[in-house]
Amino acid sequence: MNSPKHNTEYISAINVTQTSEEVYKFNFSTNGEREKNSWWYIFCLKCRQKEVGPGWEPGCWPKTCPHPYCPSYRHVARILALLVTVALFWGVVLAVMGSDAKPGGQLFNIAVLVVFAYLGGWVFRMLTLPALVGMLLVGIVYKNVGLIHIEGHYTELVSILRKIALVVIFTRAGLDLDPVALKKLYCRVLFLALVPWCTEAAVIATTVHYLLNLPWPFAILCGSIIAAVAPAVVVPCLFRLRTKGYGVAKGIPTLIIAVAGIDDAASVIAFGVGTSMLFGSNSVTYDLLLSPVSIAAGILYGLIWGFIVKYVPERSDPYVVPLRILMLTGGGLLAVLGFERSSLEGAGPLAVIISSFTSIYFWTKQGWNIEDNPVATAFEIFWMICEPILFGLTGTQIVLKELDLKFVTVTVMCVAIAFVSRIFITIIAASGSSLNFKEKLFIALSWMAKASVQAALGPAVLEVALNNKNQDHIVYSRTIVMVCIISILLTAPAGAIIVSLSGTRLLTKAKPSNEQWRRGPRPSIRDITLNSEDEENGTSVSNDLQVQECISDVAKSECTAADDRSDKI
């Protein structure tokens, strides 16, 4: 039998053990909370992709790769599958093309450039900056380090890749236009689109003519290209704001996206007319008569093709989505490549915008929601492929040792002057509308970014000049390309940051009870899952937590109702 002394020592040992366990648990929980508040934990949590639906992973995976510091097994397996697919594809190309697909060959260098451009875009996206800027910088570094030199028949391949990217850009621009909003506010939208566009084009043309010594025809062409708004930068930022309800009460996101599409169409028309008159071998009178014919041909082609896609394929066909994707893609490629062969270069891109807009107009009447459009989602995927190709190859046009510091400084000054002029003109043009000053200022700031249109049309001008083999025209066209690239590097990151930061301060947030408030547009593949902000409490609750809270609230209400019924019984 144990003595009281031994019992006291035993009880003391138990108390010490319990106390040490409590201290360990407290320290563990404190370290866990401290770890969750660290910048590294938050950064890894943001970078980690959210998974949809149940999945499988090996039993050792959570210990070997803890959450959220390592990606999920599904994500790693997906990357490995893509790498294996790329390796297999490269093996097939190597077997067909031979030495050009080997390391050091031109085709291999182009493929590696595209891969590194995508990685550069991913890095910039993690920094909440436009991915296209990282892709452009990768192309510039790649060219100036001497890792790529495109010549021979691969110049034709690069030209075709640019044209494919052009079709994707302008198809997305047409599909993003809202026919209902344009029908209601077409006068206001056209006024807000064309007046600032003409002002910025005129300012750019005047400044580059007097400061960069570009002849007036090339200066006007440069101004018409630079004046276009970049949907690739503006649209994702606006989608994030619209998902949170900012500006939707007055339709500001729809207005900005619509104006961006019209700006692109105006730049495409000016590009077609300008290139026909500058590089054509015909008389000035013939070119002046040909310009309206080119515009009319592009509009007519777009209307007819959009009308055809309305009936073919049939709306209830189980394969209607892939068939419509193929129809729009094929029609756009035929328009761009076909009109180029017939000396009507400007009609092609215009036909692409008109055909995609006409198609979405008819599809919405057939019951498709413009914000839940599977064809538009497919072209988002196409753009994910074409974006690093376009901006990576565009970056290779810059040779740093040929750049003059004075030229860069003057170009930056020209773009800044045009940007400030457009802000003032936009605010003045929006006078008389229901928008307040803050909303007018936000609209003006959102139209500053330059990106995809400049990256597509600038090199296209140089390509036409190289085909004509006029040395003066080639020099002037290279100047236009330099101005386009510098404007992208200057305005794309600044525009994305300004739109993202100023949107919550300059726009009014619609309440969920507002009839015009919508939960969000067709979700973009590139967007990170958004958080719903509780402005009153200053907290942020993720969508998944909101769903869980809603489920728990429903469960509580059901339990309460069951208790009430039992009490009555």
From TrEMBL:
Keywords: Membrane, Transmembrane, Transmembrane helix. The keyword Mitochondrion does not apply. The chain crosses the membrane at residues 79-98, 189-212, 218-239, 251-273, 293-312, 319-340, 346-363, 375-395, 407-429, 441-462, 474-501. It is a multi-pass membrane protein. One of its GO terms (molecular function) is antiporter activity. Belongs to the monovalent cation:proton antiporter 1 (CPA1) transporter (TC 2.A.36) family. Its main location: membrane. It is found in: Membrane. GO terms for biological process: proton transmembrane transport. It comes from the Eukaryota. Residues 512-544 are annotated as: Disordered. The keyword Membrane applies. GO terms for cellular component: membrane. This is Cation/H+ exchanger transmembrane domain-containing protein. InterPro entries: Cation/H_exchanger_TM (IPR006153), CPA1_transporter (IPR051843), Na+/solute_symporter_sf (IPR038770). Pfam families: Na_H_Exchanger (PF00999). Residues 115-491 form the Cation/H+ exchanger transmembrane domain.
